[in-house]
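Hi W.,

Here's what went into the run:
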Amino acid sequence: MNVPQYVQSSLNRYDALLLLQALLNTVELCALGLALGSLIAFLVGLARASHLRWLAWPAGLYIELIRDSPLLMQLYVIFFAFPLLGLQVPVFIAGAAVLMINCSGFMAEIVRAGIQAVGKDQWEAARGLGMGYVKVMRYVVLPQAFRVMIPATVGLLIGLIKDSSVVSVLSYLELTRAGRILTEKTYLSFQVFGIVALLYYCLCSPLSRLALYAERRLKVSG
Amino acid sequence: MHGYVLQFGPVFQEMPLLLRGALTTLHISFLALILSLMLGTIGALCRLSRFRWLRAPAALYVDFIRNTPLLVQLFFIYFGFGQVNIQVPNYLAGLLGLVLNNGAYMTEIVRSGIQAIHKGQFEAGSSLGLSFSQLMRYIILPQAFRVIYPPLCNQFIGIILWSSLVSIIAVEDLGLEAITVASTTFRSFETYMIVTAIYIVMTLTISTALKLLARRFFRQTA
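Here's what came out:
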């Protein structure tokens, strides 16, 4: 390839700083997406596991729509929905909103599975003691459901970190975007994306191990 | 809404373009499915091999691919080819990325399928004097295929959804045609809504068809 004269021939410490900043931005984006996403997921999951049809059905539709469409298209739809609502938002907010909504759809299904994994007899016993819906959930069902949900949630977080790479198309400076900037600056694609991939690996690999460990450790007996 | 009126008309006029993109999406996904299943079968046989020098690289491959984002892998391949001066059509680079990525997931799927086959089948096969490849070809893999059919279907749906990322490296799939249509009609939100709907229709149709096929051939519900 003909590399123009002005192209920088190697990576320097400023590039390392850019990557570090991008790494922090990726973590920030994922943390916000997960935190807000799990709040929505909790409500949607409760609705999905409900016996009330008018609650369960829309929740099911929400989950299906998210799980059956590509993240990239969700990103475009949400990004272009903001101006329609008359809102001008920074790309960070738009990106976090996309991850939040995507994450909530997948996590709602985890919440539902967790709630439904708790035996019906537990419900009946708690109801028989005169506990209301909120109390049954709070003291009986959810503490047991969390056990089932933890390994799946760690798995979801790994997915979320990888998914956050798609936010780079909005030009938000996260890891993948930093990789694009550095390849344009140095033309060293293999090295740059090798480093970027390695950074993602450092974020995800410990979580993968944690998910495996949690799965073994929290396996519900019987 | 600032008086913005949704207009889907101009987007519907571009439907032929979008459908052509959808066709590209389908055939890149189908090719990726077949090739990654082949890669995954080889990977699974390596992972289950007696030899460490086959097991270790296969495990490393799976670990690394599953803990890094598809988009970064696509950039690594696409821009990497550019760096070493090899001219590769975008379509091939995208396909290669999808195959390498899904090959890792397929390895795990096929491996779990082979491990689900009862040990007696291996013993019976080898006591009949079948060689390793005959044993795999005629006894183990056909049974394993039946076991892995449901996760294989899910993986195919996943490939269709994630193949939208190849639009970022300029493969003319549904995702890229969506960008073209959005920028020629100036109806971004409407375009991406319709394209998302097309993706949902594709995935729902295909997953239903695959379930019917399973009922027909395996007499099982996938």
